[in-house]
Design a protein that fits this description.
This protein has a 7-stranded parallel sheet, sandwiched between helices. It has helices at residues 13-24, 38-46, 61-78, 105-133, 155-178, 195-201, 211-219, 226-238; strands spanning 3-8, 28-33, 51-55, 84-89, 137-142, 182-188, 247-249. Helix 1 (13-24) runs parallel beside helix 2, helix 1 packs across helix 8 and helix 4 runs parallel beside helix 5 (155-178). By secondary structure, it is α/β, with parallel strands linked by helices. Helices cover 48% and strands 15% of the residues. The model has no long low-confidence stretch (mean pLDDT 94). It has one domain (3-191, 225-252): 3-Layer(aba) Sandwich (Rossmann fold), CATH 3.40.50. Strand 2 (28-33), helix 2 and strand 3 (51-55) form a beta-alpha-beta unit.
Length: 254
């Protein structure tokens, strides 16, 4: 029986790091993102493992739903009864970064779609499929410390991450009440050396007042390596004692 991971935002940063380690550990990876990572294809080949990429605009609900159905269909062709399915809701955006009075409606809608609606759709659909087919699953939402504290210029990001933390707790409670084999958790990876951090550091102080703090973290080499953070998450989801509904924080492990 095969373990399978579905990962959004798989082409770079934390998503690519998680996929790399899972492939190396014998887990088949089905990646969803706009662009592909040829590095992952090479890693899969080296480890005689399955890696498939599905191009998708994760800000369009119809595309998200259709892509998920394609993924599940393709999985069924390989493994009728997977040992475990992991869903890693990694794709997210920090933009728009600006004072709330300056943000445009279309930017807010795109942000909420990617950070909140898409992970909800994917998690809901996986839980439904896993329950019907009696396949154990662990769904992960990549959250942030911004979910728990207000940050000037990040009204959208703080709000969407906070909403996903509560979604995690509520859906985990529902699964407990239904006595399924599904678990839903959130994982705060801390501040990593990724493309998102480059975007944050490029902000102007009028839009994002904490920009100097993030520039200093880069200068002091205080940003975490995504592969190390990915290893922590994989240890958590492989632990039989993983707690349903828990908001895990990388700083408790590093």
């Amino acid at each position: 029986m095969l373990k399978i991971a579905i990962i959004t935002g798989v082409s770079k940063g934390l998503g690519e790091a998680i996929a790399s380690l899972l492939l190396e550990s014998g887990v088949a990876v089905y990646g969803i993102s706009r662009s592909n990572s040829f590095k992952l294809s090479e890693i899969a080949k080296e480890n005689n493992q399955i890696y498939q990429h599905y191009p998708c605009d994760l800000t369009v609900s119809e595309e998200v739903e259709e892509t998920f159905q394609k993924v599940m269909h393709d999985i069924s062709l390989i493994e009728k009864e997977p040992e475990m399915i992991y869903l890693i809701n990694n794709a997210a955006t920090v933009e728009p970064m600006d004072q709330a009075i300056n943000t445009k409606s279309r930017d807010i809608m795109r942000h909420v779609q990617l950070n909140t609606i898409t992970p909800m759709i994917l998690t809901n659909q996986l839980l439904k499929t896993a329950t019907e087919q009696q396949i154990p699953s662990i769904s992960v939402v990549i959250t942030s410390g911004a979910a728990e504290r207000p940050i000037s210029g990040w009204s959208a990001y703080c709000a969407t991450k906070a909403s996903m933390n509560m979604y995690t707790k509520v859906v985990a409670l529902e699964q407990e009440e239904m006595q399924t084999e599904n678990k839903v958790i959130a994982f705060n990876p801390g501040v990593m050396d990724t493309e998102m951090q480059e975007i944050i550091r490029s902000s102007n102080k009028e839009a994002f007042t904490d920009v100097e703090h993030y520039k200093n973290l880069k200068e002091k080499n205080a940003l975490k390596n995504p592969k190390i953070v990915a290893g922590v998450l994989i240890d958590i989801i492989n632990d039989e004692a993983v707690v349903n509904g828990e908001i895990y924080n990388v700083k408790e492990y590093l």
